[in-house]
Structure formats: C-alpha cells, structure tokens
Write a structure and sequence with these properties.
The chain has three domains: 141 residues, Rossmann fold (3-Layer(aba) Sandwich); 45 residues, no CATH class; 52 residues, no CATH class. It contains eleven helices and six strands. Strand 2, helix 6 and strand 3 form a beta-alpha-beta unit. 34% of the residues are buried. The structure holds magnesium ion. The site of magnesium ion has 7 residues, from helix 1.
Length: 275
C-alpha cells in the first residue's frame, strides 16, 4: 500500500469486471474459438495474424463481446461510486480493451449510468495501443488536461496495473471478496468500489483553513488522551451535520483511517502528543 501523500484529480476505471460484475467474458472460450494459445493476450495474438485470419478472428471476438455485453450487469456499487466521485469534482473515465460498441451495449444494462457520465472513454477503437501499454492512459490524461500522476487507474487485472504503473498513474487493484490479493504491486488494494471513494477522498486537495469535520473525526479517533488534567478530550463539535452525507461508511473505514493517518502524519500532532 502507498505510504506517501498523493493527489487524485481523476479516476479511470477498467470496464469489464470492474464497473461490471466479473465473469461476463469467457476469455478461454474466446481463445479456443480464434485459435489463440492459452495465456496469450487476445488482441496481440489477432494483431499478429495475416489479414484474412485477423478479420475472421476479430469477427468471432466481436460476437463473444456482444453476447457478454448483452448479459453483463453493473458491479456492486458501481453506479453510486461514479456519481459520487463526479459530485465531488473528480473527473471520471473508462479505459478498456473492449470495443466501444460492446461498452455502449453493456451500459444499457445500467439503470443509472450511460456513456455521457464518463468524461473520457478509451476503447480498442481509440487509436492508442491497448493495455498493458500506457498509451491509452496518457491519452486520457491529455484529454482531461491533467498530470498523469494525479490519475488513479482502477482495475481488476494485471494489465490494468501494468498500464497504470507504466504511465506513471496511481493504481488500485479491485480484488473480489474471498479472492487472494495479488501482492504488493499496485498502490492500493480494494475489495469494493466504495473503498475507491475512500482512497480518492484522501487524495483530494484540502481546503485552506480548518480540516473538514469528517477527516478530523477519523484523525481524532486514533488519538489517546492520557493527561488526567484533560477533562474533555478533543472532539468534533455539532453544527450542521456531517459533511459528505451519502458516502458509504463502514466497509472502507479501515482503509480510510489508515491512509488518513499517513496523510496527516507530518502535519498534525501524533499519538499521545499534546496539542
Ligand atoms: Mg477487467
């Protein structure tokens, strides 16, 4: 996990298995249908075929993708996460090795999301080398007018993490509940898309002046007050309710607190110190 401060201005999501539920595309069945050896990347295999065989393989791949797109479903929390990120001023995009047509078809199964909700969509129809090449992410950052180091790439596959790392973006690997984590490569490991929101909230520039109440609350919850002369420990006052209502709490709290302490470590008194 990342141990240094970071800033996030945009989140670029992988599509299949990240914004959609995993398992819609049967990659092994596609490989068998087009004669691609097991484990070999499909797009790169097709690119190396003679023109006629490539066209035939491409048509078979398109058919598999169309079928999978028609059956795909939003991943848990995907719609809410995208909308809350946008509402918080975070730029949101998609980068996929799929065709634009299959992404559009898939989004028809999302009640609350459409292509218009993404400021940038990089598909295999975009003239950029597909993931794991960093080209698509560089293009997305350029289109958004952002520094690539302020972009978070979220995906469920090693290709997503490789593309993000090669581009110089931050990376978060979505590891489904119950699955093994994939080691220390990515900057962040998350179990749910809601945890992405927690990570992003800690990477947003803080307003000048007072620390927002919800961040202060998490920080103070980690302090111990041992001085017997302190009758009332520091806490967050009342006022007009907590900021950022509507953001899911609970599941990601540990992630959030963990990164918050790291982020604030150099700026506020640490454990047991007096203010
Ligand atoms: Mg994926």
């Amino acid at each position: 996990m990342r141990a240094t401060p970071y800033r996030i201005d945009a989140v670029i999501f992988d599509f299949d298995g990240t914004l959609t539920r995993p398992g819609a595309l049967d990659f092994e069945a596609i490989r068998r249908a087009i004669g691609c050896p097991p484990g070999e990347p499909i797009l790169e295999f097709l690119a190396g075929l003679p023109p006629e065989a490539r066209r035939d393989g491409q048509a078979r791949l398109d058919a598999f993708e169309a079928e999978a797109a028609a059956a795909s479903q939003p991943n848990d929390g995907a719609e809410g996460t995208v909308h809350r990120l946008r509402a918080a001023g975070v730029r949101v995009g998609v980068i996929s090795r799929n065709s634009l047509a299959s992404i559009k078809r898939s989004l028809r199964n999302f009640a609350g999301l459409s292509l218009a909700d993404f400021e940038v969509v990089v598909s295999r129809d975009t003239p950029a080398s597909p993931k794991p090449a960093p080209d698509g992410l560089h293009l997305a950052a350029e289109l958004l007018g952002l520094d690539i180091s302020h972009v978070l790439m979220v995906g469920d596959h090693a290709h997503d993490m490789a593309a993000g790392a090669a581009a110089g973006a931050l990376t978060a690997l979505l590891v489904p509940q119950g699955a093994e984590s994939a080691g220390d490569g990515p900057d962040f490991l998350v179990r749910t898309l809601a945890e992405v929101e927690e990570i992003v909230s800690l990477g947003r520039p803080l307003p000048q002046g007072k620390l927002p109440k919800d961040l202060l609350e998490v920080y103070l919850s980690g302090l111990e007050f041992r001085d017997p002369s302190v009758l009332v420990a520091a806490g967050v006052g009342g006022g007009r309710g907590r900021a950022r209502r509507g953001r899911p709490r609970g599941a990601g709290a540990e992630v959030r607190s963990h990164h918050l302490r790291r982020r604030l470590g150099g700026r506020l008194p640490g454990h047991g110190e007096r203010q």
